[in-house]
Amino acid sequence: MTFAEQLPALAVAVPLGAAPVAALLGRGSLPWALAAVASVASFAVALLLAVAAAGVDAISYDVGGWAAPYGIELRITSFSALLLLIITGASSAVLLGTKASLDAEVARGRRPYFYAAWLLAVGGLSGIVASGDAFNIFVFMEVSSLATYILIAGGSDSRALPAVFKYLVMGTIGATFYLIGVGLIYMMTGTLNLADMEARIGGVADLKPILAAVGFVTLGLALKAGVFPLHVWLPNAYAWSPHAVTAFIAACSTKVSLYVLLRFDFMVFQGSLAEHGVHFSGFLLPLAVLAVLVASATAMSEGHLKRLLAWSSIAQVGYIVLGASLLTEAGLTAGIVHMFNHALAKGALFLAVACLATRFASLALADLAGAARRMPWTMAAFAVGALSLIGIPGTAGFVSKWYLVLAALKTGAAGAALVAVIVISSLMAVWYVWRVVETAWFRVPAAGAGRDEAPLPMLAMLWLAALANVWFGLQPGLPLALSESAATALMRYVQ
């Protein structure tokens, strides 16, 4: 087997293999160095897979030489390649840029285990998007979830403990629902391979257990993804995590759950169940509209910077779900490319928050008065990420919102109402972003506060993330090509 044929396995094996080694490296900088090297290596693998997946339907890897559906299959499509880029890119950027922040927030004795958990989270999330069968998705889901709980609680803020407990309870319920749904499908079809499930469900005489499975799987994954109104775990989990952890999970965690949700609902259910598309759209479209409006309205009145951005993330999940629930190739393309573009914007914004936290003891908006005078480069990069979040032309966020508007207009009379929702929510984003800008630029800083920027590595990675929002706003070819290919593949199953 050639090196290229081993890439799907390496995407999962590199971070998972490095995790136990990181736990044994002692209390110095070696655990961080190993985690950073493993993340960058995983990102290189993801880039190679993205190039390879662009020209084929899928890249299949049979674990142990046992062919699917009887063996375990790793299956890389354009969709999964895009998600691998998000996961490994976010991990690499955050680890390389925020060592100073992590050293300040994570106790020295915990660091080997913290970085081991980080690598387990990366490996688990990568395994979810690479896996070709439903049960191994669950296994990797549990690996990544348990590791993420450790990361959220691994800092010095005691408020993370009740937040992570709520996340643990809600995440366990979501995973249990998903597993019950998979069990019902297995009971009726005798297979766990996703492609084989779709082929066999059509031959099932009694569809009642399958319909019950649809409900369990959809609700379980929607809960894991923070789909409104199943988002209650998300604001505090983001707000009280170590700042580097927030930047990482905000960029990729909910997107991975949405990936599984879309893959199941389009590939398995819509490919074999008549009228499922109508039910899928009728259930999720209203929730997406509510998420966009309610979460944006909540962000407008939020007084803590990280919670404000967390509520914004709930609204952005609404955009992704909105695009998918249109059940058109254009809508699905818009939703998928927004996964990538939102990861860029929110990753940059939370990296800016990590920089601010090195100089400000509190991230309450009232305590950030004059922050732009004290940290002008940090706040300038924050502004670039915020412009992308709003969807200003020339930024990555504009690309996905423009595609979403075009997709909504193609749906007929109702499309005008959806466009109005998108425009109104974007104006609401202008409002809550302006609250930060007004506080940072136009309020008087504390007496004696001079210019004092974040450490150079943090600032450099922040600006790399901010400029990536501009680059992919002007040159959106790669994420758009992968998103269009993914949407075309998924829409083949829509009846």
Task: Record keyword descriptors for this entry.
495 residues, mainly alpha, two-stranded antiparallel sheet, 2 strands
Task: List the topology elements.
Elements: H1 7-23, H2 30-53, E1 59-62, E2 73-76, H3 78-97, H4 99-105, H5 111-130, H6 134-153, H7 160-189, H8 194-201, H9 208-225, H10 234-240, H11 243-269, H12 276-301, H13 305-325, H14 329-357, H15 371-374, H16 376-390, H17 396-409, H18 413-442, H19 456-474, H20 477-491
Antiparallel strand pairs: 1-2
Helix pairs in contact: 1-2, 1-5, 2-3, 2-5, 3-5, 3-11, 3-14, 3-19, 3-20, 5-6, 6-7, 6-11, 7-9, 7-10, 8-11, 9-11, 10-11, 10-13, 11-13, 11-14, 12-13, 12-18, 13-14, 13-18, 14-16, 14-17, 14-19, 14-20, 16-18, 16-19, 17-18, 17-19
